[in-house]
Specification:
The complex is a heterodimer of chains A (96) and B (351).
Chain A: E1 9-15, E2 23-29, H1 33-44, E3 52-57, H2 69-77
Antiparallel strand pairs in A: 1-2, 1-3
Chain B: H1 3-33, H2 46-65, H3 67-71, H4 80-105, H5 111-119, H6 137-154, H7 163-191, H8 195-214, H9 226-231, H10 239-257, E1 267-269, E2 274-276, H11 282-292, H12 296-309, H13 311-328, H14 339-344, H15 346-350
Antiparallel strand pairs in B: 1-2
Helix pairs in contact in B: 2-4, 4-7, 6-7, 6-8, 6-10, 7-8
The chains are: A alpha+beta (96), B mainly alpha (351).
Chain lengths: 96, 351
């Protein structure tokens, strides 16, 4: 039987209270989505840390590679004009 | 790739890899120096990875083996209140084990491999759990002293250079505080109770004090992993530093409990502004590490039994999950082998 191999890995996202987005809490092993949800509740919300939980198979997550992070995020690097602090406004001008 | 150029190309690849890894090593060193966190997919030295796996595995194993000495008293807790608290605490320990196993798995090791190594005695757990819980007061002494020592050790680990380990420790430390306080409160109730209850509390503290001090590991001059771990910022303080900090914390707490610590050499040292304490019996520590503690065999045997006796649950859950998947795929007919099953059990699929 399959007990000799690990169950699939799931990533757990918890919404701590209404109005906030789900945040990555950690991961766990479970045979299916329903068990993953129940395990996530027992593991990550024992002290009422959540009002909603998502579980996602870890294999379904596509991530950027740390090796190419400089090149990947480079386009934003030379555009300081995207930040409000880039602009010089005379003293005394309000609501800007 | 054409055969003729293969040799040169391979050499070229090797050169590029070497230059690449030098650049990566520099990036790793810079991140550690700048107190940034190393994340799972970053390049890291093999020895850093191996050290983390060893330490996190030992830590995870300690959490789940640590469930045993306390679970020993769940059915005999003196009140429903104490029973509910103890169950919650033991459940927390299981949770802590799971956080740490997950964190260790980000380093490319599997859960199964970690458990196999624990069951085969090839990875350790904290030697403290090889001592027996003889009386109800031991539950209090474990909470106060063992969890207290663990917290002293673990708070600096929240700033460990490896991100997933540090994050797991933040979660664990938040929860440990309840563990320590319930132990203190339990001991206080006994200490203020009948003379027999007071004596029981004192006896538990007498037995758990020295093993708790040993939890900080060998003295600095005999600790084989310490220097490198501190350079990598896995560890932030030396074993002796943390041990003395723990003594400082415990002395006034013992007074508040109305109990004495079993060390006549504990006294305030004006010069360093900390307490001095007596000589630790490191022979006992080594013996317990070697497997000759009072409960080494029992703890490991019980862990193996629990794992084996839980096999049917894991099997049933796996079969159920397969069946649900098969139904969802629409191919629902009994006996149909899904792709997933065919990959997982090639022998069965072709038999």
């Amino acid at each position: 039987m399959s007990s000799s191999t690990d169950w699939p890995l799931w990533e757990v996202f918890v919404r701590s209270r209404r109005g906030l987005s789900h945040t990555h809490a950690g991961s766990l092993h479970a045979p299916d989505a329903e068990m993953a949800l129940r395990n996530a509740r027992d593991l990550y919300t024992r002290r009422s840390e959540g009002v909603s939980v998502w579980v996602v198979p870890s294999t379904e997550i596509t991530a950027s590679s740390p090796d190419e992070k400089d090149a990947f995020f480079e386009p934003a690097g030379d555009k300081p004009y995207r930040h409000p602090t880039f602009y010089e406004i005379p003293d005394g001008v309000k609501h800007l | 790739m054409v055969a003729v150029t293969a040799g040169r190309t391979a050499q070229g690849v090797a050169d590029a890899a070497e230059a690449g890894s030098e650049r990566e090593a520099a990036a790793f060193d810079a991140a550690v120096a700048a107190d940034e966190r190393i994340e799972p997919r970053d390049w890291m030295p093999d020895a850093y990875r191996a050290t983390l796996v060893r330490q996190m595995a030992q830590h995870a194993h300690s959490e789940i083996i640590g469930m045993q000495p306390e679970a020993n008293w769940i059915s005999r807790a003196p009140s429903l209140r104490r029973k509910a608290i103890l169950m919650a605490k033991v459940q927390d320990e299981a949770g802590h084990g799971l956080y740490l196993y997950s964190a260790a798995e980000t380093l490319g090791t599997s859960r199964e491999e970690l458990l196999d190594k624990l069951h085969a005695g090839r990875q350790r757990y904290s030697s403290i759990f090889n001592y027996p819980t003889l009386t109800w007061a031991d539950v209090g002494a474990i909470g106060w002293l063992v969890d207290g020592a663990a917290i002293t050790n673990q708070v600096p680990l929240c700033r460990c250079s490896y991100g997933p380990y540090a994050r797991a420790m933040v979660r664990i430390c938040k929860e440990e505080s309840f563990h320590q306080r319930q132990g203190f409160e339990l001991l206080l109730a006994l200490s203020r109770g009948t003379p027999a209850q007071h004596a029981m509390a004192q006896d538990a503290v007498d037995r758990w004090w020295w093993p708790s001090l040993m939890m900080f590991g060998p003295p600095d001059d005999a600790s084989s992993h310490s220097a490198q771990s501190m350079a990598w910022k896995i560890k932030r303080h030396s074993n002796d530093e943390l041990r003395r900090r723990f003594v400082d914390i415990c002395v006034p707490q013992a007074q508040a409990l109305g109990l004495t610590l079993p060390d006549p050499d504990i006294r305030w040292n004006e010069e360093i502004g900390q307490h001095d304490y007596g000589e630790i019996d490191w022979t006992e520590f080594q013996e317990v590490l070697k497997g000759n503690g009072p409960c080494n065999d029992q703890r490991l045997a019980q862990r193996r039994t629990a794992h084996e006796e839980g096999a049917w649950v894991r099997d049933a859950a796996a079969v159920y999950a397969d069946k649900q998947r098969a139904r969802a795929d629409g191919s629902g007919a009994e006996g149909t082998t899904t792709d997933a099953e065919a990959t997982a059990h090639p022998v069965e699929a072709t038999a």
